[in-house]
Design brief:
- The protein contains 15 helices and 14 strands.
- With 478 residues, it is of the alpha/beta class.
- The chain has a single domain, classed as Alpha-Beta Barrel (TIM Barrel), CATH 3.20.20.
- The chain starts with 7 loop residues before the first strand and ends in a 10-residue tail after the last helix.
- Bound molecules: 2-(hydroxymethyl)phenyl 6-O-phosphono-beta-D-glucopyranoside (P53).
- The site of 2-(hydroxymethyl)phenyl 6-O-phosphono-beta-D-glucopyranoside has 18 residues, from loops.
Length: 478
């Protein structure tokens, strides 16, 4: 009982939030580089404020981030010390194809990830690679309009072929698009979309989503052709919606809200647009242009496993209900009176993870992989630089306990768990460094000042113990 012997314990990062080195090794510029901190960030992320190059009065935290580009050996050694079985990272598209539409890839970029994967191999850490974690080459945005353009499928296909071939034998777990449903909430961040005044944004977003879904199926096909050992997953920003009350109207609203997210995974895992989505699109007057082959491709090349992020549960209510909205997240939600929230207003709900796991497994009947989960919090190092992050340990142990219940009591198959930001990194939502998730503290502040020195937090030793006991010992030590 408990976690299976081969359970993949580890941690997760994304290139744009940790690598830095935005202009090193022949790398090209991407959407994720030109997203500033401060009050305009949200407008840029959502495609409302067009920013396709650096502007002088802004600070862009992804440019340097925590400079994992040069620290990766040191960082992977620390992951190995915790006993990581897996490390989830993403490939920066613009290291491989700086502009995105070149004929030949950038050797320096390919070599960088090869070195990184070999470093993982040294410690028997299985890489779990997100092919795109929110990044899109700027050139492809300027020239083609990002994912609104069908040509993106070809550029993405090329990227996939190159990396699947080059890293064969080094990588076997792949995720096609990080939080694919994020395209609806953060279209510039998620898919390089910007909008002109008067454009039908929903039409553009769903067409772009279609391109990503087809690209994802194509990636799955190619991955399996190149190496039958490859395992490909979809990736959803998950968390089931609760109904605010037992008013059937609230219940209906929560079901509709869930479907707004499931839609993507229904296509990636079941292989076709579900009927409710076809009706919804028709009702909104949205028409998806698709080629003859698209349907067949989606049907034939579904994913092997379902991966997702889970931070907080969500609540939905009908317009009739008098409810309080909570902010701090790109997903609109409602305040749940039964839950405590993080300093950023994310509601803490371990049982919600078990509920979400059951919902996803009931629906797809494929193994799950939790590839993001964690608590973003302010850490205060003591005079020796040590962080006693009991709050983080409390959050993580409660969520791991919920996972265990889902496995033991409910029979949900779970491949692994990679907690988010295993080393402190830049927040995607706010661009802050202050919002930390790591077991490893990085000396860097919101304005980019700091020595970048890495130090182990209390949770580092705790997680090491969790992994060493295969999830049996979750207790907090004094
Ligand atoms: P930050 C919002 C809601 C759910 C997931 O987020 C989200 C976001 C973005 O704010 O993104 C994922 O850094 C994403 C990561 C991100 C992480 O959640 O805003 O895949 O890139 O860092 C946490 O606290």
């Amino acid at each position: 009982m408990g976690f299976p012997d081969n359970f993949l314990w580890g941690g997760a990062t994304a290139a744009n939030q940790c690598e830095g080195g935005y202009d090193k090794g022949g790398r090209g510029l991407a959407n994720v580089d030109v997203i500033p901190t401060g009050p305009d960030r949200r407008a840029v992320i959502t495609g409302k404020r067009n920013m396709l190059s650096f502007e002088t009065e802004y600070f862009y935290p992804a440019k340097e981030a925590i400079d994992m580009y040069t620290h990766f050996k040191e960082d992977i050694a620390l992951f190995a010390e915790m006993g990581f079985k897996t490390y989830r990272l993403s490939i920066a598209w613009t290291r491989i194809f700086p502009k995105g539409d070149e004929e030949t890839p950038n050797e320096e970029g390919l070599q960088f990830y090869q070195d990184l994967f070999q470093e993982c191999q040294k410690y028997a850490i299985e890489p779990l690679v997100t092919i795109t974690h929110f990044d899109c080459p700027i050139h492809l945005i300027k020239e083609y309009g990002g994912w609104r353009n069908r040509k993106m499928i070809d550029f993405y296909e090329k990227l996939c072929r190159v990396i699947f071939e080059r890293y064969q034998g080094l990588v076997k777990y792949w995720l096609t698009f990080n939080e694919i449903n994020m395209i609806l909430h953060a279209p510039f961040l998620g898919a390089g979309l910007t909008f002109e005044a008067g454009e039908n944004e929903e039409q553009i977003k769903y067409q772009a989503a279609h391109h990503e879904l087809v690209a994802s199926a194509l990636a799955t096909k190619i991955a399996h052709e190149i190496d039958p050992d490859n395992q490909v997953g979809c990736m959803l920003a998950a968390a089931s919606y609760y109904s605010y009350s037992c008013n059937p109207k609230d219940v209906w609203e929560s079901k509709q809200s869930d479907r707004g997210n499931y839609f993507f995974i229904d296509v990636q895992s079941r292989g076709a647009y579900p009927t409710y989505a076809l009706k919804m699109l028709a009702k909104k007057g949205i028409t998806i242009e698709q080629s003859k082959e698209d349907k067949a491709l989606l049907k034939a090349h579904t994913v092997d496993f379902i991966s997702f992020s889970y931070y907080a549960s969500r609540v939905a209510a009908s317009e009739d209900s008098d409810v309080q909205k909570t902010e701090g997240n790109l997903f609109p939600t409602i305040k749940n009176p039964y839950l405590e929230a993080s300093e950023w207003g994310w509601q803490i709900d371990p049982l919600g993870l078990r509920i979400t796991m059951n919902d996803l497994y009931d629906r797809y009947q494929k193994p799950l992989f939790i590839v993001e989960n964690g608590l973003g919090a302010v850490d205060s190092p003591d005079e020796n630089g040590f962080v006693e992050d009991d709050y983080r340990i409390a959050y993580l142990s409660a969520h791991i306990k919920a996972m265990k219940d889902a496995i033991d009591e409910d029979g949900v198959p779970l491949l692994g768990y990679t907690s988010w930001g295993c080393i402190d990194l830049v927040s995607a939502g706010t661009g802050e460094m202050k919002k930390r998730y790591g077991y490893i503290y990085v000396d860097l502040d919101n304005e980019g000042h700091g020595t970048l020195k890495r130090s182990k937090k209390k949770s580092f030793y705790w997680y090491k113990q969790v992994i060493a006991t295969n999830g049996e010992d979750l207790a907090q030590k004094e």
